[in-house]
Write a structure and sequence with these properties.
Blueprint: H1 2-11, H2 15-32, H3 37-51, H4 55-72, H5 75-92, H6 96-107, H7 117-129, H8 133-147, H9 153-169, H10 173-176
């Protein structure tokens, strides 16, 4: 309940109160012991911290989620999106080599090497920012394939933003628009 409440409060603009509830959620999940919430709570905290521009804290929270997934045996279930989140934050922090390493570890969790929509998009964005535009396009195409026409609105926005950034790297502001 605190996890959902915290996310809602952040979305409504009450960032500090929302973050406090999200932190409490993560603490309660740790105290309760073995549970998916030990992974979900730091993931949601990291997402909200990233949206608030608090990138270093977001990276730390994402890393806590990665560790919880490892200790709970939930890496296959949550690891790819945790890697996407941590990699996205590291990309935004300018730590591109670390971002690639984290995302590669996430991709290694998928026997097909395809990952998730979020992971493919995050990797495509990183490649675009590095100037590897053909590689970025392949990752974005994979994200489209994984979505199969069904994509969460937040992920659709993230994918569109990543494609726009790639267009700007190509010096094509009309395509970015």
């Amino acid at each position: 309940a605190r996890n959902v409440l915290g996310s809602i409060l952040v979305a409504l603009g009450d960032v500090e109160s929302g973050m406090a509830h999200l932190e409490q959620s993560a603490t309660l999940a740790d105290e309760a012991g073995q549970s998916d919430m030990r992974v979900i709570a730091p993931y949601n905290l990291a997402v909200n911290l990233a949206m608030a521009g608090r990138l270093r804290e977001a990276r730390d929270a994402a890393a806590r989620g990665v560790e919880a997934a490892r200790t709970e045996g939930l890496q296959r279930r949550y690891g790819m999106d945790l890697a996407a989140l941590e990699g996205d934050v590291l990309t935004r922090l300018g730590r591109w080599d670390e971002a690639a390493t984290v995302m590669d570890a996430g991709l290694a969790l998928d026997p097909s090497g395809r990952g998730t929509i979020y992971l493919a998009t995050a990797r495509g964005r990183l490649e675009a920012l590095r100037g590897e535009l053909s590689t970025a396009r392949r990752w974005f195409g994979l994200a489209d394939d994984l979505a199969q026409g069904q994509i969460d609105a937040d992920l659709a926005g993230y994918l569109a933003r990543a494609r726009a950034e790639a267009a700007l790297v190509e010096d094509d502001p009309a395509a970015a628009l």
